[in-house]
Amino acid sequence: MNRAKTASNPKITAKAKVFGTGKAMRSIETLHRWTGGILGVLLAVLGATGVFLLHQTLFLRWTMAHAADPVTRDDARLAALVTHMLGDPAHKLRSLRVAGDGLGVHRAYYTGEGGAYFDQSGQIVTQWSSEWQRPEVWIIDLHRRLFSGDTGEAIVGIAGLIGLGFVITGVLLWWRTRSTFEFRLTPKRLSRPAILRHHRDLGVMVAPFLVLSFVSGAMMALPVVEDVLLAPFGAAQRAKAPKAPTAQVQPPIDWQAVIATARAQVPDGELRYIALPNAREARILIRMRRPGEWTPNGRTMLWFDGKGQLAQWRDSRTLPIRARVKNAEYPLHTGDALPGAGRWIMTISGLGLAMLGSLAVWSFWFRRPSRRG
């Protein structure tokens, strides 16, 4: 009799066609609930740390002297600072992120975990020998690699794919109860039914932003995912090792001349980053940001030999379409691709993920309904 009623009811039949059988939906719900209960903490951590990193410049401007100073272009002082760092026997300079993008201090990266911030006159503002001494340093390691190097990065990428699965299954589960949708930022009460209802509605509200976060994050963390999604834009072109042996910086280098050469080669570019030769890069590297580039450090690159002579440069605007799409992954993940609103959109994504993950775990493990005997 029940089967006959189901077959004769067009609404039930249409619903079954869209969502499949009730058994299938119960299986999806069980999978969604259990996976969320197990991995919710990890996703909540990624969401919360991501929000901090989106606004770390604001954090530094509030907590560090000179971080809010207006950025001025003084190549002579910048050249003198690099020269001084190279002559410092206590710290081996690895790279320097030049003041800009809202931050009024230079950030030096030393070999190992050490680093320092310098004001634009070249004076040390603060320095550290361990990443645990600076929250913005260890939080980024937690967000990207879970303090576990390449293995942690792979886990983060897999978590992004699972998160994408949460969005898809969550929307399917929400659709059945869409008539009860209510716009609320927090649960009406801390009861399990209220938390579950809020979880469904909040998940749908932030779903588009979460998709962007999960997909871009998985692409950066997992080369296989990146290759699959970039396949329509052309064949992969792996970076080849430099033909020349690793250049040894041969002092004295005229860093002011090096910087002047970079500015002459890219007159409309903003100098953002200087890196010395290392195991991955055989020459001195300078990165510049041209107008219209989304990546904060820029993707226009100039390479100099150990004597400070320009050897090669690459204009970000002439890269193949696949490379340009690849370069968009990071600014899409951080919201820099949409100046102004983009960072706040991704903030909503991060806060939403943190709330969805934490409340899911809490309601699953600690707010089980009491059984009546």
UniProtKB/TrEMBL annotation:
Q: What are the coiled-coil residue ranges? A: none
Q: Keywords in alphabetical order, please.
A: Membrane, Transmembrane, Transmembrane helix
Residues crossing the lipid bilayer are 34-54, 154-175, 202-222, 344-366
**InterPro entries from the xrefs?**
PepSY-ass_TM
Q: Which PANTHER family match?
A: BLL7967 PROTEIN, IRON-REGULATED INNER MEMBRANE PROTEIN-RELATED
Q: What is this protein called?
A: Putative iron-regulated membrane protein
